[in-house]
Amino acid sequence: MTFRLTVTPVLSRNLAVRDDAIRADKARQEAGWPTARLVVVDDKGRTPVVWSDEPAAGFAAGDAGSWDVGQGATARLRTRPTTGSTPAEGAVLLGEYEGVAYWGMRGGPDLLAGDDPAEWADLRMAGAVLDPLGAGLFVTACALLNWHDTATYCPRDGSPMRVEFAGWHRVCEAHGHEEYPRTDPSMIVLVHDGGTGPDARVLLARQPVWPAGRFSVLAGFVEAGESLEACVLREVREEVGVEVRDVTYLGSQAWPFPRSLMVAFQAVADSTTPLRPAEGEIEEAMWVTRAELQEALAAGDWGGGGSKLLLPGKVSIARAMLESWAAA
User: Fold this and answer.
1) Residue 308: which pLDDT band, with cuts at 50, 70 and 90?
2) Number of neighbours of residue 110 by Cβ within 10 angstroms
3) Could you tell me which residue ranges the Nudix hydrolase domain spans (predicted)?
């Protein structure tokens, strides 16, 4: 039995036009700057968000599990108007939508302008409930700004690098070498037994740093010289001691914490194989039936609903994978 993703991973949604031609057209950027909007992101990855439903108490303090995003609440970014006649130093072009250019910048709450610091949220908090335009802009802003924070000097000779192409590459001032935003590929895989019906099984695991009861699918970074499919085989074998087969691509999602791309797969394994969790990486691993997974999904996100099996929140592609398998 194989399955497909039945929902679009929430951080894969993007409505803004991101063409190279826009990034290269300085005249267009300057002409659109007075009516452009700024997505301001602080050094903790937060931006102001307007909620249609008020998050529960404690949410602003970072307690993402205190608000069940499965209840249909929605949110949008609170962008700022631009100032001046030309793009500000440090601004990066995120794209255009319906004739409006959107730029990202580092910054913080502007108390004089009436900003409320309690309204600022990061992608883990708000990504699942942002509208498609806001989700795409926020993901892009975080990814691009994170790269700029660590790309100020040329990796070849240590020379300073200047920003070009509306923030989409840097050029070494000494020798003209170009650097582009980094993206680190990571595979994430839902391993199942190939069965059908309520007794079919999926493999879940828990990292040592997670609270008891919190489980997800397996994931790992792609190594140099390694294909994505080979990474799936290696990581599952290393982390739980299981050999998998029938590796099939499912989808992908940006994960800018700080610069990953999660590439999702499914794979089949023998559920009678003894599990051998890797010491220091996997605290616990277990096979869960489809019926048990459906019950946990119905209970809500991380920490919600009183379920003994706590699953990833909707912002993660892992949640889309689990929901899709449970519904197959």
Assistant:
1) confident
2) 11
3) 181-310
Give dist(CA 239, CA 235) in Å, integer: 6
User: What CA–CA distance (Å, rounded) separates 177 from 320?
Assistant: 40
Q: Is the pLDDT confidence value at 280 over 80?
A: yes
Average pLDDT over the chain reads 91
DSSP annotation string for 247-301: EEEEEEEEETTTTEEEEEEEEEE-TTSPP-PPTTT-SEEEEEEHHHHHHHHHT-S
Query: Where does the pLDDT of residue 239 fall: very low under 50, low under 70, confident under 90, or very high at 90 and above?
Result: very high
Residue 67 has pLDDT above 80, yes or no: no
Number of other CB atoms surrounding residue 215 within 10 Å: 24
Residues sharing a CB contact under 8 Å with residue 125, sequence separation 6 or more, in sequence order: 49, 59, 62, 64
Whole-angstrom Cα distance, residue 248 to residue 180?
30
Place of tokens 């990953």: 260
Sign of CA dihedral 170, 173, 178, 183: negative
* Alpha helix ranges (H) inside the chain: 20-24, 26-32, 123-126, 132-149, 228-240, 290-298, 317-327
Task: State yes or no: pLDDT of 150 exceeds 90.
Answer: yes
Q: Count H helices, E strands: the chain?
A: 7, 16
**Which 3 state secondary structure label does DSSP give 220?**
strand
Lowest mean pLDDT among 21-25, 69-73, 110-114, 239-243: 69-73
- Beta-bridged to residue 265, according to DSSP, are 189, 249
pLDDT of residue 54: 59
Average pLDDT estimate for 102-113: 92
**Domain range list for the chain:** 10-149, 155-181, 184-327
AA letter at 137? L
Supply the angle between the helices 290-298 and 317-327 in degrees, to the nearest 10.
130
Name the CATH architecture for the domain at 184-327: Alpha-Beta Complex (3.90)
CB 131 within 8 A of CB 72: no
